[in-house]
Amino acid sequence: MAKIPERKAPEAKRESADSGAKSTEATGTGTPEPLTQQWGMRDWNTLAARAQVSAVAWQPGLRVSGRYLGQPFTGVIKNAEPDPQDIWSLTVRFDEPVDVVESEHFSALRRQVNCTIDARGESALKTSDGVPHMVIGPL
User: Fold this and answer.
1) For residue 126, is it within any domain?
2) Which residue of 16, 21, 65, 121 has the smallest Cβ count within 10 Å?
3) For residues 44 and 3, what is the distance between their CA atoms, to the nearest angstrom?
4) Geometric angle at alpha carbon 16, from 12 and 19, rounded to 5°
5) Contacts 24+ apart (CB under 8 A), 76-82
6) Is the same domain home to 95 and 74?
7) Residues 16 and 47 both lie in one domain
8) Taking the CB of residue 50, how many other CB atoms lie within 10 A of it?
9) Contact 4, 39 (CB under 8 A)
10) Residue 79 to residue 48: CA distance in whole angstroms
């Protein structure tokens, strides 16, 4: 099945043509609604926003970089499991251990972490100042 960005324009044009052929007046927002329902979205704005997210095909062996708890890293994906809502469960192995503590008095180094990210590569969990725990992207 094609991805949303590849299909939304042709299908919207077809929907518009079909509604014109039925001699019904269509408003600017009403025309693509059947298309949005076909993709399981409630309205055109939701579908358009979802289509603009460039989803990465996370897979084991993919080289990545980003920030974990505010610390920069590079590493490799050890495991990747998708779910139907474009949420990914990843296991990331860092090239160099990452210190996950901000204290000057002690350290807690992590060599590997499990995380759950969305299609943008950001975790839903955030630090107290609103920064995602994990922000990740392919190298």
Assistant:
1) yes
2) 21
3) 16
4) 135
5) 78/112, 82/58
6) yes
7) yes
8) 18
9) yes
10) 30
Q: In this structure, what token pair is assigned to residue 121?
A: 């590569």
57 in any annotated domain: no
- 3, two tokens: 């991805």
Tens of pLDDT, residue by residue, the chain (139 residues): 445 555 556 665 665 565 555 544 445 555 567 767 776 677 777 766 666 555 678 999 999 999 999 999 999 999 999 988 889 999 999 999 999 998 899 999 999 999 999 988 999 999 999 999 999 999 9
Contact 138, 63 (CB under 8 A): yes
Token digits for 30?
């009403």
Report the largest interatomic distance among the alpha carbons of the chain, rounded to a whole angstrom: 74
Asked if residue 131 and residue 75 are part of one domain, the reply reads: yes
Same domain flag for 87 and 125: yes
- Domain span including residue 36: 4-52
